[in-house]
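Entry for the shared binder. Reason: the reviewer on the internal report wants the predicted structure included alongside the sequence.
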Amino acid sequence: MRPMWYILDKDKNPVPAKDMIQANRLLVDTDGRLVALDKIMVEDYAITITVSTVFLVLDHNHSPKGKPVLFESMIFKGELNQSLNRYRTWKEAEEGHKKMVELVKNNLWVSRILDKVSAKTSNTKAITKKLIEGLKRELQLN
């Protein structure tokens, strides 16, 4: 049977905890479990979106097959609020965190374009055309 509780060794590799007391020490150590934290200030929407990636301590792979799932990235606030991804290793978690931050930034970019286009017209066909034109300009496809 696979262990439920894990800690991190000196190289940030998950290893089974000896007991729940050892796991609990890490569980309450929020700094010790933090993989990455980014705060994205969005002044035009008056919010700060947070992307947090942590070591979970408890295995979140609820299948008897496969490796333990012990890391999680989550987005707080904004349109992607509560979106999450989970990972098996510290390295996967670091890479996944970067992707989540890019996802937030890309979503904000599209939202801003939609807001600008929607403010100018209520015609769906016109909005779509203006959106495509705006994307082409932003991506320098013209």
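Summary line for the report: The two ends are 59 Å apart (CA to CA).
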